[in-house]
Amino acid sequence: MTTEHFDAIVVGAGPAGNSATLTLARGGLKVLQIERGEYPGAKNVQGAVLYADAVEKLIPDFRDSAPLERHIIEQRIWMLDDTSYVGSHFRSDNFNEDKPNRYTILRAQFDKWFNKKVKEAGALVICETTVTGLLRDKKGRVTGVTTDRDQGEVTADVVVLADGVNAVLGTRAGLRPEVRPKDVALGVKETMFLPRETIDARFNLKGNEGVVIEAAGTITAGMTGTGFLYTNGDSLSVGIGCLISDFAESGVRPYDLLERFKRHPAIAPLIEGAEVKEYVAHMLPEGGYEAVPPLYGDGWVVAGDSAQFLNAMHREGSNLAMTSGRLAGETIVAAKKAGKKMSAKTLKAYRAALDDSFVLKDLKKYRRLPKVLETNKHFFTEYPRLLTHAAETWLRVDGVTKREKERDIVSAFRHRRRLSGLVSDMFKMGRAWR
Amino acid sequence: MSQGLTMVVCIKQVPDSAQIRVHPVTNTIMRQGVPTIINPYDLFALEQALALRDQLGGTVTVLTMGPQMAETSLRKAMGHGADRAILLTDRFFAGSDTLATSFALSAAIGKINAETPVDVVFTGKQTIDGDTAQVGPGIARRMGLNQLTYVSAIPAIDKAAGEITAHRRAEGGVQVLKTKLPCLVTMLEGTNELRRGSLPDVLRAERAEITTWNAKDAGIEDVTKCGLKGSPTKVSKVFAPKPRSERAAMIEGADATPAAIAAAAVETLVAADPALPGVITRPSALA
Ligand SMILES: Cc1cc2nc3c(=O)[nH]c(=O)nc-3n(C[C@H](O)[C@H](O)[C@H](O)COP(=O)(O)OP(=O)(O)OC[C@H]3O[C@@H](n4cnc5c(N)ncnc54)[C@H](O)[C@@H]3O)c2cc1C
Predict the structure, then answer these.
(1) pTM for this one?
(2) Other C-beta atoms within 10 Å of B271: how many?
(3) Helix B98-115 and helix B135-143: axis angle, to 10°?
(4) ipTM of this complex prediction, to 2 decimal places
(5) Which of A122, A288, A366, B173 is the most buried (most CB within 10 A)?
(6) Rounded to the nearest whole angstrom, what is the distance from the C-alpha of residue A305 to the centroid of ligand 1?
(7) Structural domains of chain B, count
(8) Is residue B25 part of a domain?
(9) Each residue of A405-424: pLDDT tens digit?
(10) Cα A319-A366-A21 angle, rounded to 5 deg
(11) Minimal CA–CA distance to A31: which of A152, A149, A154?
């Protein structure tokens, strides 16, 4: 055992861990961050949307040095059936602003950059080291961690668990119930190389402008989930994700699903000629508010994916991770300054700060949504078909009167969902949205 | 007398060649974003030095010449247990070929030697980016060290007698060699497995002050022997070779004899490439 003692130990160097460690180090604490990957970002899923606001709160001038791929000027939201899609596009020159709001990034590079800032702030960071368990005293208080290295124990006043979606450490220590399969999705994603000029031409972009596409519909083979395509500098991120419980039940192989998505007539021309550079599979916490575990206790707090902080509806994860990491850090720094023990009573302030922020407020707003989507699969099958059918019927000019077309569309909806079904769907969605 | 061995392990930070890509359009090597690693061959040298330290005591210093970011590799080596790390960095070193590199490294080793006499200098067999295997021998030559290349094991070192016994891979066998210390060893791959450092090791490595020397610190007066100026090797062009054959040919002939199939294949090859010798000896087994 090392004789060294730290003020705080942070497990993980993802967005949550980096934000927590940075805040702690700036607050003057002696902090050790432990990451199992070869370097920060090595284990993290490539290609993602970064929300500037959460980074700015930590590193206001991040745009000067962070590895950013493109700023997003256009968002497409598509409903797909097997051959068509209907959707909405929003593109605005207002997004070409001095300080754009959303960027595409490659996580491996971004996390590495972020961690460099953490080190510069004075934190001690070690990689290729897995935390295997938590040290507890007789009263059950967390007093440090054990790692997979020789003489691998190290103690601290408080441990920040930012170990990602599996939440193995908290579960193993009995600090929280096990993550349920219906509360996590499995995302598979490829980074596909395509020359910058081709991407610019194909998506109508210039400079560092970028596009993101979010897609739902029959592409998930009746499972609860979504697909996406993001433009990076000279690559595309293409992926699809569904609930683990659905994959288990349907027997559909995630990779096959991605292949099918890539062959969809709406997607195939966009990725044509692109060369797969990387393939990753990673889980996402999608249980929402109802799945949020206990967030603090004697000598520990939990942040980011490990706390199930992900807004699946808006595809926001890293910003919740960064904000929760920062709030955890601020809570601990304040407690330390006030000379308080890192007890559950002290760390309760972290929960209060989260309740007060968009993190828990947004999750609370959508608290019913995971259940609605999980138990109403027709949102992913019937509705896309009905919508594309409606659009096609409406647009096809074939001598059929417009009144007949209207009747056809309405009757298709009634036939598939019946009036009661339509009303109840609207009610369910409406409630889940509130 | 023995206070253990003083060992220097030269390592190089290289791009992970498994992840280098050639731009599909311009055909140039895309260096951007390619992760760097310690030259894999050097890791066998590092472990050999650490094992000798475990056995006989002493110190292991890792030395690298490279840009500031090569510090990462030095810290990594310390995390595996090396005692000390020296980074040789200077703009004068940029563009060094193997001659200029061995010149600069020799100067630095000479400086270490002036503090404590060095017993063994280690390098890997070669690097994965240059593939020359010249730097190790270059250092030995400049410093007048006995050199043992392609070493697979070091069964004995007798510091008092100033002797080292090494196994060296040679064509068709292993040579058992004995020579005098100090010497230079280039280690063969696959000869050992690098240890994982303990938690105290990695904590120490992360915090360690990396000694940084510029050309002057290393005692180099004549910088024209460094970097691009001191490098007679000139790279005129880097390109991806054309794939040699477009596609494999399927040979029909379930009912022909192997000899007939082979003969037909040879004929086709010779017809396609007149540079091939016209007369081909027929393997007797097929006749
Ligand atoms: C396919 C996919 C697409 C996504 N797209 C987006 C997007 O576009 N925008 C967005 O905001 N979010 C997106 N997310 C979600 C986002 O990736 C996460 O919400 C975010 O990474 C959570 O950050 P974190 O720090 O909590 O966890 P992570 O990023 O998972 O980091 C956890 C870190 O802890 C390390 N670790 C784990 N266990 C241990 C241990 N025992 N010892 C040491 N280290 C350990 C891991 O190696 C890892 O580096 C996406 C997720 C997926 C799967």
Answers:
(1) 0.86
(2) 9
(3) 50
(4) 0.85
(5) A288
(6) 6
(7) 2
(8) yes
(9) 999 999 988 888 887 887 78
(10) 25
(11) A154
